[in-house]
Amino acid sequence: MPRLVALGIIVTAAVAVAVALLRPPALRAQQDESYCRPPLKFAAGACVAQCPAGYEDRGRVCVFRSLSR
Length: 69
Description:
Layout: H1 2-22, H2 26-30, E1 41-43, E2 46-48, E3 55-58, E4 61-64
Antiparallel strand pairs: 1-2, 3-4
């Protein structure tokens, strides 16, 4: 019986590691241009109609532009 419990723990851990390695990073998935439906654009983790102040419009994605230069 203890062997079955140990085997179950090992299998569960192996599956959890496999899922974590195969899943794409959340941030990278959100930055994809297809994340927001047209005519919305992706900026600062959200879909927006216009790029907010400090962001440069690059089509379907708004890119942060540092204003300190």
